[in-house]
């Protein structure tokens, strides 16, 4: 399929989300659309998929103009779409989700579970997606849910072009690598792909060509050989430093002390197993580890969302046992959650309401127990400007924002009040390079004011860029604490369970001696073999 967009424009009142967009996707091509949060990427894809109607412009498929009144028309024309925010029904099985809207039936209109399962297996096997048709979607890891969405999109009668809207925003590095290979497999089989992203390395790794959109306009057409700096500058319209500038840390007194912390899951598994960790004022401690090793439970225990089975958590020397979430926040605890949809925002609330979500009872946002709407509005206007939140109004609902701008709302809320300790879990997940640079600089600034920061990130680059000390978690325990100049291979071995002594390479002198001994052993073995050995 050859797709062409000509002068596609979308206006919401006086606001122009996309302005005269031209774009061509050739058959079997992976065409990346790169842009910062709020650039108009998702709006463009929603027009293409029939969710939104263009204000002006044309969509052509194989040279013929088309018009879609809804996603059903787009699917019938051969398009499939994996949305940034998944559209799965959690309690339904994989097969049930895949057949929604295209149900497999047998006589008298009865649903055929057998046919639905077969459809999932056929598509899964064809593209190497490995899905169990009977698995319940809400029980699946995010990366596997992503595969369900892809199978669902490919299960149309003749899916020839697949739209992937920020598909890696919530995936782990291993899942991202897997998804990029799936994309290559699809393209090799002749499927055209529109890959919407703001992640430079991924675009370089998989795209055949790149279109850059900024503030709703096409500003550049690039090859994947373009440098990261060139792509970043095109995205944000200015030079972007991809390094974090910071001075050496000056740690002070302990801000967070975690001792012998144990959390047992409902299944009886120790997700935290006697964990010990200390974070001082004026330092950023990076918690590195493969996701699912207790990071989430540690963060939620610190905030008070999860009650540990044993152990102690102290903040500023005070045991927080028995203190609720609101009390911990009032005492100076800040929290950037890893799952902004579940723990960070109330989607139906406005941007303004979300920005004061943990302060609306306090002055100056409340007087005599009554919320001061004027003060809340002013705070929102100031935060929107300071944190570059792309929204039409402070009164717009948080659910209408892009994922990256939702993250900026949370960052604005947590960074606009005084705190003594901050848990930052995946703070730049789903955020573009310009916003990531801003968030990184604010985290360093927090450290420099004396705040203790626990940085939990699945991005090892982010850990190395920000951390003054790195703690590695495995199976619910801290298995090693190292300096940020420690080689990646050492941290990699710790992340899969090696103890620190085994993970560290031998000193140069020992390594040289070991090499000589190994060489001598090899020579002796060779001599024995030449003489028939010691038989």
Automatic annotation (TrEMBL):
<dbReference type="GO" id="GO:0016887">
    <property type="term" value="F:ATP hydrolysis activity"/>
</dbReference>
<dbReference type="Pfam" id="PF00005">
    <property type="entry name" value="ABC_tran"/>
</dbReference>
<feature type="region of interest" description="Disordered">
    <location>
        <begin position="502"/>
        <end position="535"/>
    </location>
</feature>
<feature type="compositionally biased region" description="Acidic residues">
    <location>
        <begin position="512"/>
        <end position="535"/>
    </location>
</feature>
<dbReference type="InterPro" id="IPR027417">
    <property type="entry name" value="P-loop_NTPase"/>
</dbReference>
<feature type="domain" description="ABC transporter">
    <location>
        <begin position="3"/>
        <end position="240"/>
    </location>
</feature>
<dbReference type="InterPro" id="IPR003593">
    <property type="entry name" value="AAA+_ATPase"/>
</dbReference>
<dbReference type="InterPro" id="IPR003439">
    <property type="entry name" value="ABC_transporter-like_ATP-bd"/>
</dbReference>
<dbReference type="InterPro" id="IPR050107">
    <property type="entry name" value="ABC_carbohydrate_import_ATPase"/>
</dbReference>
<keyword id="KW-0762">Sugar transport</keyword>
<protein>
    <submittedName>
        <fullName>Simple sugar transport system ATP-binding protein</fullName>
    </submittedName>
</protein>
<keyword id="KW-0547">Nucleotide-binding</keyword>
<feature type="domain" description="ABC transporter">
    <location>
        <begin position="256"/>
        <end position="500"/>
    </location>
</feature>
<dbReference type="InterPro" id="IPR017871">
    <property type="entry name" value="ABC_transporter-like_CS"/>
</dbReference>
<keyword id="KW-0813">Transport</keyword>
<keyword id="KW-0067">ATP-binding</keyword>
<dbReference type="GO" id="GO:0005524">
    <property type="term" value="F:ATP binding"/>
</dbReference>
């Amino acid at each position: 399929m050859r797709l062409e967009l000509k002068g596609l424009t979308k206006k919401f009142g006086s606001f122009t989300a996309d302005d005269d967009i031209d774009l061509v996707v050739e058959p079997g091509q992976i065409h990346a659309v790169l842009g910062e949060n709020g650039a108009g990427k998702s709006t463009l894809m929603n027009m293409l998929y029939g969710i939104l109607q263009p204000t002006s412009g044309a969509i052509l498929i194989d040279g013929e103009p088309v018009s879609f009144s809804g996603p059903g028309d787009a699917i019938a024309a051969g398009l499939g779409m994996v949305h940034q925010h998944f559209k799965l029904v959690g309690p339904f099985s994989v097969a049930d989700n895949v057949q929604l809207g295209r149900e497999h039936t047998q006589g008298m209109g009865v649903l055929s579970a057998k046919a639905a399962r077969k459809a999932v297996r056929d598509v899964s096997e064809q593209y190497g997606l490995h899905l169990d048709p009977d698995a319940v979607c809400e029980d699946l890891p995010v990366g596997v849910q992503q595969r369900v969405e892809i199978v669902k999109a490919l299960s149309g009668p003749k899916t020839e072009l697949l739209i992937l809207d920020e598909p890696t925003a919530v995936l782990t590095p291993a899942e991202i690598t897997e998804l990029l290979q799936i994309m290559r497999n699809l393209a090799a089989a002749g499927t055209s792909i529109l890959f919407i992203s703001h992640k430079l390395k991924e675009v370089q790794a998989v795209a055949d060509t790149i279109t850059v959109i900024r503030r709703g306009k096409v500003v550049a057409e690039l090859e994947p050989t373009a440098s990261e700096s060139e792509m970043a500058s095109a995205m944000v319209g200015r030079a972007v430093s991809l390094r974090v500038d910071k001075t050496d840390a000056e740690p002070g007194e302990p801000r967070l002390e975690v001792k012998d912390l144990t959390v047992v899951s409902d299944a009886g598994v120790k997700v935290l197993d006697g964990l010990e960790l200390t974070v001082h004022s004026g330092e950023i401690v990076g918690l590195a580890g493969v996701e699912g090793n207790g990071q989430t439970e540690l963060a939620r225990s610190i905030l008070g969302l999860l009650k540990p089975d044993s152990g102690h958590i102290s903040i500023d020397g005070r045991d927080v046992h028995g203190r609720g979430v609101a009390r911990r926040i009032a005492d100076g605890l800040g929290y950037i959650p890893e799952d902004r949809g579940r723990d960070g925002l109330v989607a139906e609330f406005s941007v303004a309401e979300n920005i004061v979500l943990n302060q609306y009872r306090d002055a100056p946002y409340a007087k005599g127990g009554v919320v001061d709407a004027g003060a809340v509005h002013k705070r929102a206007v100031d935060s929107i400007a300071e944190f570059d939140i792309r929204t039409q109004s402070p009164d717009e609902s948080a659910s209408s924002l892009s994922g990256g701008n939702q993250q900026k709302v949370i960052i604005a809320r947590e960074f606009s009040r005084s705190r003594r300790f901050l848990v930052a879990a995946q703070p730049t997940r789903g955020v573009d390079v310009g916003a990531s640079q801003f968030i990184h600089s604010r985290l360093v600034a927090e450290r420099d004011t004396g705040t203790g920061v626990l940085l939990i990130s699945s991005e090892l680059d982010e850990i190395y860029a920000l951390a003054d000390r790195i703690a590695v978690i495995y199976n619910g325990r801290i298995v090693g604490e190292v300096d940020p100049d420690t080689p990646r291979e050492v941290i990699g071995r710790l992340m899969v369970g090696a103890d620190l002594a085994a993970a560290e390479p031998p000193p140069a002198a020992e390594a040289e001696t070991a090499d000589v001994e190994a060489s001598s052993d090899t020579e002796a073995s060779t001599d024995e073999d030449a003489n028939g050995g010691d038989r």
